[in-house]
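In response to the reviewer comment on reproducibility (Comment 2.3), we provide here a single inverse folding case reported in full, input and output, so that an independent group could reproduce the run without further information from us. The structure tokens appear first.
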């Protein structure tokens, strides 16, 4: 029987056929691979051609994005997805161990998403998970036929998964999911750049925010057994036995007694009004950790340049007045002290970055690199109010909250203490006789107090009272998640940009 005329293809189908003939048929779905040279060249040609029609060509983004879509499909592993689902059917207790870190949309296959979502619902209702209950739930939701029916559910365990490798299957599914989301982020950024809807800084900020959020999700972990954690804790206790410290020494003995050192994974806020010595104190801690402790320290200085910081460190360590070093009016003996100090400091693992107004993403990226390459032990950021979160926020308070939350997450991720300097509001000046700061004075956001593990206020009464001793200083411990509150008395030596502990000589920082 003669066949009728072939049905006309729609514009989208014709375009896809042309694309297939140009670049070859797409192989079976698997791992994404880099774009071929021919496809990249075609994409560049398309950009030029579309640009000639004006920046508002509505087809430009679609054409270019289609040309840049990976031919082999998005990253996924059907075998691992099936193995996870089959393992849960075999032992429903496994679901409780991963439901906090593996979501339904982490599965690539739509049928797998529906099956996993149904399993989560059954778990939340305390309903046993087996073939019959799963079938009933999918029928109830009208999704059984869409997932392939009872035949597909029953066939999940045809290739019986190794339950001992369940965590490995889960990690593969999660890793592929993160990669797909990263591709989505890149496509969104490309679309915004091509459409011209956002200027370059705004598009970059949005991209940074999206990637940072994705990175935070990728490092989350679920429940872990207590036994290995106890082993780690006992090992730390053995290392600290007799030292009185479970963290890194700050160099100030009285502070260490109250805080037990700078705790790993903790966010430390050092705050004060201008001129109190926040930067000096934080830099003294960094010097002690790097020069005397031999640990790698990274300092992000948003306010001062690297040369000024270097002069401050030289002045502090050599005990030669900062003003003399700035003016060059120092004696021969002082010059020799500076040279000897320089040799000592050069051997210390202290790194400084004075980039102007970096975003969280930039700081986090550089810190991760320093951790990987030099085993970063302490991070110092001077100071919070000069930071940018990236992206748009309704107000500055929300942006500050995003910054402090991100630094808390970074401290946990890298397992290091992070010292974040912060300005205070003008409220202390309005208090009458006692100008000592309080937690409510933290500027622009209550999230600073909430996210911090330790809040220290640097206070010198001489800033307000001419009759006060200019060398007297206090370190007020306003919040201490793991220890006592109170204050630590210090000696302020402004001429050489350093604080000194009032403890016995040799026990302060950086030099008693």
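Designed residues, in position order:
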């Amino acid at each position: 029987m003669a066949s009728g005329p072939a049905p006309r293809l729609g514009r989208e189908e014709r375009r896809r056929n042309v694309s297939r003939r140009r670049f070859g048929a797409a192989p079976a779905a698997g791992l994404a691979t880099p774009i071929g040279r021919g496809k990249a060249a075609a994409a560049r040609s398309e950009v030029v051609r579309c640009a000639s029609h004006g920046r508002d060509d509505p087809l430009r983004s679609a054409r270019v994005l289609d040309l840049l879509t990976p031919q082999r499909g998005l990253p996924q592993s059907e075998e691992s997805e099936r193995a996870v689902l089959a393992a849960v059917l075999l032992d429903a207790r496994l679901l409780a161990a991963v439901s906090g870190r593996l979501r339904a949309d982490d599965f690539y296959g739509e049928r797998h998403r529906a099956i996993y979502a149904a399993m989560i619902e059954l778990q939340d209702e305390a309903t046993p998970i087996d073939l019959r209950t799963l079938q009933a739930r999918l029928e109830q939701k009208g999704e059984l036929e869409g997932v392939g029916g009872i035949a597909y559910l029953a066939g999940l365990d045809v290739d019986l998964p190794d339950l001992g490798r369940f965590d490995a299957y889960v990690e593969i599914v999660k890793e592929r999911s993160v990669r797909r989301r990263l591709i989505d982020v890149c496509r969104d950024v490309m679309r915004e750049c091509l459409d011209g809807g956002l200027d370059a800084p705004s598009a970059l900020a949005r991209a940074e925010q999206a990637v940072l959020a994705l990175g935070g999700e990728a490092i989350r972990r679920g429940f872990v057994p207590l036994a290995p954690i106890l082993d780690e804790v006992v090992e730390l206790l053995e290392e600290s036995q007799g030292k009185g410290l479970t963290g890194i020494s700050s160099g100030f003995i009285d502070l260490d007694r109250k805080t037990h050192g700078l705790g790993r994974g903790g966010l430390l806020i050092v705050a004060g009004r201008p001129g109190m010595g926040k930067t000096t104190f934080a830099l003294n801690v960094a010097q002690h950790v790097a020069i005397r402790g031999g640990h790698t320290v990274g300092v992000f200085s948003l306010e001062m340049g690297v040369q000024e910081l270097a002069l401050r460190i030289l002045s502090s360590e050599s005990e030669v007045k900062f003003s003399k070093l700035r003016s060059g009016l120092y004696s021969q003996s002082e010059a020799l002290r500076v040279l000897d100090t320089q040799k000592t400091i050069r051997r210390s693992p202290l790194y400084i970055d004075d980039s102007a107004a970096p975003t969280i993403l930039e700081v986090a990226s550089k810190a991760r690199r320093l951790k990987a390459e030099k085993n970063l032990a302490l991070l110092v950021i001077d100071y919070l109010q000069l930071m940018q979160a990236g992206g748009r926020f309704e107000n500055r308070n929300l942006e500050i909250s995003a910054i402090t939350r991100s630094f808390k997450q970074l401290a946990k991720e890298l397992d290091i203490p992070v010292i974040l300097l912060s300005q205070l509001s003008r409220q202390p000046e309005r208090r009458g006789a006692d100008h000592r700061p309080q937690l409510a004075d933290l500027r622009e956001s209550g999230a600073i107090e909430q996210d911090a593990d330790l809040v220290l206020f640097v206070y010198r009464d001489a800033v307000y009272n001419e009759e006060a001793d200019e060398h007297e200083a206090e370190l007020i411990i306003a919040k201490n998640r793991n220890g006592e509150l109170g204050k630590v008395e210090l000696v302020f030596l402004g001429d050489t940009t350093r604080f000194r502990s009032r403890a016995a000589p040799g026990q302060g920082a950086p030099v008693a």
